[in-house]
Amino acid sequence: MLNILKTRIKEGIKVRKINIKDIKKDNIVIFNEELRNKLLNKSENRHFINNISIRLVDSGSCNACLHELSALTNPYYDMERFGFKFVAAPKHADVLMVAGCVTRNMYSALMKTYENIPNPKFVVAIGDCAIDGGEFKDSYATLGGIKDKLRVDILIKGCPPEPIDILSGLLLAFGKPIK
Amino acid sequence: MENKSVNKQDDKSVNKSGIKSLNKTDFIKNLDNDIVNIINEHFFNRDNELVIKINPEDLKKICLYFFKDLKFYLLSAFAADESKDGGNNFKIRYIFSHSSMDLFIIVETYASADGIFPSLSADMPVLNWYEREIKDLFGLIPEGHPDPRPLMLFPENYPQDTNKNNEINSQYSSDSASCHPLRKDYPSGLRPEFKKYGEYNYNKDVKGDGVFNILVGPVHAGIIEPGHFRFCMSGEPILQLEIRHFWKHRGIEKIAEGKTIDEALSLAEKISGDHCVAHSLAFLSAAEKILDIKISDRGLYLRTIYAELERLLCNINDFAWLFQDVGYSFGAQETFVLKEDIMELNKYLSGSRFNKGVLSLGGINACGDIDELKKKILTEKLSDFKKRYLNLKKALLNSSTIQERFEETGYINKETALDLCALGLAARASGVASDTRKEHSYLIYDKLHFNSKVLKNKDVFARLLIRFYDIEESFSIITQCLNELHAEGTQTSLNDADINIKKYKLNAAILTSTETGVNTAGNNSNNAVFWGLGYCESQRGNIMHFVELDERAKILRWKIRDPSFHNWQLIEFAVIGDIIADFPIVNKSLNLSYAGNDL
């Protein structure tokens, strides 16, 4: 343990600086452009800025997206410094994050989670197959993606999207306005 | 419970007395006479694939002979629909393997005309899920199955057969009363009407004063894949656990039908995202065997490096989660930093943090080539990683509070591991040798020096120690491969692979003319079909793919079996008697894939 501490002191803090102006915007699609302008700037909703609780539902991903999402909490990305956190219960959440296509078996669990998130709520889709099912859209076992089931506010593309893209997407939508 | 024989030598001696010789060519001759007599036909499909054709009424005798008497273990069991117009022809295959012989035995039988085949689950518990899977996807009835509930097609969401009469040529439509998607007459993309069809029946639960149930899932409280668990509790200890999986059943095997190998390769990477290299490797090795494509030495070494990098990454990840689950955040975050560094190394090497898209038919894509500069950086990084890993390992082994949680938690007895055919590290921590790299050497593992450690402590700590051995072996294997990579004879590779692929693309009819494939459709060469086994040792254990191509080199049947499919059933036994707070540790000590299990 002392060895680890020694290296830590020598190497310094690992947290990576994120420069929101440089992010690759083509990986992030914000469907709901008024999201920031109307909702977040309303005085009663301004508390959402940099203060978002996320409930993740994996409705049929291949688990690569989940690896990248759990990387968000590691010391490199440390998303809690921006006020984003994963919460255990939908009742505590502001955002429903969906990874993967929607399988028949997961549909009702996904919908129940969405219904239990208090208003106002947002939906963030993670990965290429979340929006329309990707390669699984024509399968007997899926219902495509969440596109025609829920109103998707943000889509973060990639297979899987890298943690830096996910974090940038969240910051673009829910972070402080860029000056 | 005492384990009588724990290492390979003991197993071997037992088998030598069972089979007179381990010689592959005389294998059939050395079997018992009454077994040889009921074999209809046998031939070698490839060097190590022995096909034995039998009648369904002899199935139980043959399978139990291999499983119980000769100590073979089951690697996969699946059906295939080979019906022609108006006919009803379902083949069922069981793949057996042995820990001390490079031989796969493929027992091939068929379902009767009314769609019934004998169930062996009562004698071979590992077949429980396999037979229910066949029942769901093909509508064949395993006669005498002790637990014939639906498995992956949930009774809530899919129409269930009400009559046992299997009409093969019934027209499927969205409102038909049955759904057996892997039948060839089931149209691809057809979805049964989405409505509530029925209710799920739990297994019998424990009754008594003070016994209560805890239901967990499918949506969990963290970043975890969906699965449903029912614990029967009395106070803190768990009396019974029922696992309900297949929430993420995506129907990969049906989607793949009719696709080309390149299209299917993209699906193979999505079977289980963290094991994308292992699954593509298994799929490609099957396809390459069928198409008779040889891979250059350099391609083999590069594939080994990527396979071992993946093993390293997954083991480090599991190591971190074990720290996290006992509340040792400091160690966990340090290990997550190490994991992130490995993923960034992956990105540097191949452009993808999971090494997606590196493997291709015939070798390695250009993005995955390792030149002198990459080799230098890889070597430097690995020695740095190893140093940091050893520090973390020391921190863990010096902490008695952490070890106290791991030791004597989550026992998997050797008998359970053998009955359920545990694979990979779950088996090796319970005294059962299971490592495909040693048993059925592929790539260049026969040229490399590495050990596959077997421990008999059977608890969470034993599985953690096996991970440590695996991590150290991975470091050593990558170093060995890197040393060979730029030696003589391994320098020109990628071009060879390209040539092979061109050859395959030029002449898709290569299959019908080549003699290496085996015509399983009988003498009718117009309907020639070709199949092969693809396998590899992933970080979780053996991955087995069965690939069957048609004459245009498109997928006819692709059975995927992730090690999680076997090992999930172990957890039901591993947690009994432990307190519920230990369940996450037992779960993480195996760290199984939900996606690979559900398909």
Layout: helices, strands, pairs:
The complex is a heterodimer of chains A (179) and B (599).
Chain A: H1 2-11, E1 28-30, H2 34-40, E2 52-60, H3 64-71, E3 84-86, E4 95-100, H4 104-116, E5 122-126, H5 128-132, E6 154-156, H6 163-174
Parallel strand pairs in A: 2-3, 2-4, 4-5, 5-6
Antiparallel strand pairs in A: 1-6
Chain B: H1 8-18, H2 33-37, E1 41-46, E2 49-53, H3 59-69, E3 73-81, E4 90-98, E5 101-110, E6 116-118, H4 127-138, E7 141-143, E8 211-216, E9 228-234, E10 238-244, H5 252-256, H6 261-268, H7 276-291, H8 297-325, H9 329-350, E11 359-360, E12 363-364, H10 372-397, H11 400-406, H12 414-419, H13 424-428, H14 436-439, H15 460-485, H16 494-506, H17 510-513, E13 530-537, E14 542-549, E15 555-561, H18 564-574, H19 583-590, H20 594-598
Parallel strand pairs in B: 2-5, 6-7
Antiparallel strand pairs in B: 1-2, 3-4, 4-5, 8-9, 9-10, 11-12, 13-14, 14-15
Structure description:
- The complex is a heterodimer of chains A (179) and B (599).
- In chain A, α4 links the parallel β4 and β5 (122-126).
- The longest helix of chain A has 13 residues, at 104-116.
- Chain A is α/β, with parallel strands linked by helices and 179 residues long.
- Chain A has helices at residues 2-11, 34-40, 64-71, 104-116, 128-132, 163-174, and strands at 28-30, 52-60, 84-86, 95-100, 122-126, 154-156.
- Chain A is built from six helices and six strands; from the N terminus they run αβαβαββαβαβα.
- The model of chain A has no long low-confidence stretch (mean pLDDT 81).
- A six-stranded mixed sheet of chain A has the order 1-6-5-4-2-3, with helices on both faces.
- Helix content of chain A is 31%, strand content 16%.
- Chain A has a single domain (27-38, 47-174), classed as 3-Layer(aba) Sandwich (Rossmann fold), CATH 3.40.50.12280.
- Chain A starts with a helix and ends in a 5-residue tail after the last helix.
- Chain B has a domain at 252-598: Cytochrome-c3 Hydrogenase, chain B (Orthogonal Bundle), CATH 1.10.645.10.
- The radius of gyration of chain B is 24 Å and the shape is globular.
- In chain B, the strands form five sheets. Chain B has a five-stranded mixed sheet with strand order 1-2-5-4-3, covered by helices on one side.
- Chain B is an alpha+beta fold.
- In chain B, α9 (329-350) runs antiparallel to α10 (372-397) and α15 runs parallel beside α19 (583-590).
- Chain B has helices at 8-18, 33-37, 59-69, 127-138, 252-256, 261-268, 276-291, 297-325, 329-350, 372-397, 400-406, 414-419, 424-428, 436-439, 460-485, 494-506, 510-513, 564-574, 583-590, 594-598, and strands at 41-46, 49-53, 73-81, 90-98, 101-110, 116-118, 141-143, 211-216, 228-234, 238-244, 359-360, 363-364, 530-537, 542-549, 555-561.
- Chain B starts with 7 loop residues before the first helix and ends with a helix.
- Chains A and B meet through α1, β2, α3 and α4 of A and α5, α9 and α10 of B.
